[in-house]
């Protein structure tokens, strides 16, 4: 489906005027184009629907041929066809198209029209079709829908109310209605409908709907009981095990959650939801990065799974080097690279442009940072070193303006980190041990100004390539040991940040790990604390409930 606007972007009133002019002249095709444009901009405006009705009457066949469905159909034309199908006595088909429009452009109130909210629609389409429509709406909507985005779904909730009134004992309809009510913040209504669904016909899905509704209503104990009953209905549905574990973990009951994951993995050791959830819970229990590395390995080795998981990103979010850079301590702030000599030529304009496009103080997890940095893969080595020696100006974006206003040094830190990640993609055909990318990064890691950025790139390489882990772990261990020895003689502002880097390193030896844990307690200076607070403000994320599998 095409986007919700076309190239002309005319106001709805102008589109209507052009549509009426074309209609008066008998040019129905052009009139249809302008009606579709008006619908895309004002989907509930009565004058638009009046003009659509005049167009349908003028066509002699209900107007459907004026709005054919093709591979890429303008969303306004899809909605026009939906209304004409309803007028032609085919409302179920029209609803399917409105739901498709909602999925394509969820911010528009495509369904907020009288025929959708009319009580008799539920009788005309029957309970099974109504349930299917509600399932389609739920599949297209986030869970939960942010409050600011709920208005366009109000008509579908009205349809659910009308359908449940007409068919009060239809279990599937009640369950899907509950799922929609939950998504739009109507938790009490969701519990009532789901409870009726279970009473009408006890089933696994009925208990799942009830469990989700009870959890949204804050009734955790009852929610867990419902989900356990769902397991009793179908002990082989391991997705429910993962959701029980996620709910328990949300309330700090990590060991209980892990026990459910162990039960699931005993049934199927490669079930993706169980693997993702188990690794996340193990990390939450002991904080050891090996669990996250194992999860990243699983993701790499199993690229096709049942759905997208967010466990790895959730665990890395906000953690030093796992999900974001640390502010540069002391005098290293704002410096350019040692190893990038003052005579290093400035980078090309193209290199600076690419760097500005992708540089950011946060990333979902190290493998995602590696993938993002592929945008620098075709830059040559002089350009990459030039970026380190001559950091580009901050980008003209909201983030760039904040960084420029608060502390430009943080932007320099971003440049260093992402340029070093770009070096990981330099001549990837070369074997790691003798590669230019390893040589340059190790040299930079041995300096001062860019050491942490270079080490992070090396650590990232170890995340994505198990064959380099022992080499990288040795480089990191040597660097951390050197800093720790120096710290006995004088303050080392980089010690804590390097320690966090070490703790993010796969296969680090136990002694270095213990040293790193000690060094993370080195007090931070005032400037470091101020920048850490800035990072927290910049990167403060929306933190959803730690998800299990997405169930209806």
From TrEMBL:
Residues 327-352 are annotated as: Disordered. It holds the Pfam family TPR_19. Residues 327-350 have a biased composition (Low complexity). SUPFAM superfamilies: TPR-like (SSF48452). InterPro entries: TPR-like_helical_dom_sf (IPR011990). It comes from the Bacteria. This is Uncharacterized protein. It comes from Micromonospora craterilacus.
């Amino acid at each position: 489906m095409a986007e919700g606007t076309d190239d002309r972007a005319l106001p709805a009133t102008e589109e209507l005027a052009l549509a009426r002019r074309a209609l008066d002249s008998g040019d129905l095709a052009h009139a249809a184009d302008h009606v579709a444009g008006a619908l895309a901009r004002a989907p509930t405006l009565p004058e638009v629907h009046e003009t659509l009705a005049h167009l349908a009457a003028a066509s002699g066949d209900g107007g459907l041929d004026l709005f054919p469905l093709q591979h890429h159909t303008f969303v306004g034309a899809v909605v026009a066809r939906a209304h004409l199908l309803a007028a032609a006595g085919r409302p179920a088909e029209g609803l399917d198209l409105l739901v498709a429009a909602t999925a394509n452009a969820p911010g528009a109130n495509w369904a907020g029209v009288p025929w959708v909210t009319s009580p008799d629609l539920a009788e005309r389409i029957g309970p099974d079709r109504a349930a299917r429509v509600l399932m389609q709406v739920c599949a297209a909507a986030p869970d939960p829908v942010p409050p600011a985005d709920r208005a366009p779904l109000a008509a579908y909730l009205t349809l659910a109310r009308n359908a449940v009134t007409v068919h009060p004992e239809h279990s599937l309809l009640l369950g899907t209605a509950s799922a929609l009510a939950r998504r739009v913040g109507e938790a009490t209504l969701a519990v009532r409908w789901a409870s009726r669904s279970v009473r009408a016909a006890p089933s696994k899905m009925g208990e799942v709907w009830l469990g989700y509704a009870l959890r949204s209503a804050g009734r955790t104990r009852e929610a867990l009981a419902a989900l356990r009953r769902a397991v009793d209905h179908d002990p082989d549905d391991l997705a429910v095990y993962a959701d029980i574990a996620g709910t328990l973990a949300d309330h700090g009951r990590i060991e209980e959650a892990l026990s459910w994951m162990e039960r699931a993995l005993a049934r199927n050791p490669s079930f993706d939801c169980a693997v993702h959830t188990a690794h996340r819970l193990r990390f939450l229990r002991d904080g050891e990065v090996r669990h996250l590395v194992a999860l990243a390995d699983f993701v790499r080795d199993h690229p096709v799974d049942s759905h997208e998981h967010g466990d790895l990103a959730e665990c890395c979010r906000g953690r030093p080097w796992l999900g974001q850079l640390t502010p540069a301590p002391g005098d290293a702030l704002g410096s350019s690279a040692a190893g990038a000599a003052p005579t290093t030529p400035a980078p090309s304009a193209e290199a600076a442009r690419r760097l500005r496009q992708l540089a950011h103080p946060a990333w979902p997890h190290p493998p995602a940072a590696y993938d993002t940095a592929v945008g620098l893969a075709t830059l040559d080595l002089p350009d990459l070193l030039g970026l380190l020696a001559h950091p580009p100006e901050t980008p003209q974006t909201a983030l760039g303006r904040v960084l420029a206003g608060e502390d430009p040094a943080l932007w320099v830190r971003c440049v260093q980190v992402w340029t070093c990640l770009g070096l990981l993609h330099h001549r990837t055909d070369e074997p790691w041990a003798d590669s230019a990318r390893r040589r340059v990064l190790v040299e930079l890691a041995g300096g001062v100004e860019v050491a942490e950025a270079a080490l992070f790139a090396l650590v990232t390489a170890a995340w994505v390539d198990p064959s380099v882990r022992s080499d990288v772990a040795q480089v990191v261990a040597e660097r951390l040991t050197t800093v720790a020895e120096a710290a006995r003689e004088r303050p080392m502002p980089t010690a804590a940040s390097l320690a966090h880097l070490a703790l993010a390193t796969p296969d680090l030896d136990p002694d270095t790990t213990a040293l790193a844990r000690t060094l993370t307690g080195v007090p931070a200076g005032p400037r470091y604390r101020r920048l850490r607070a800035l990072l927290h403000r910049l990167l403060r994320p929306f933190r959803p409930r730690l998800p299990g599998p997405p169930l209806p």
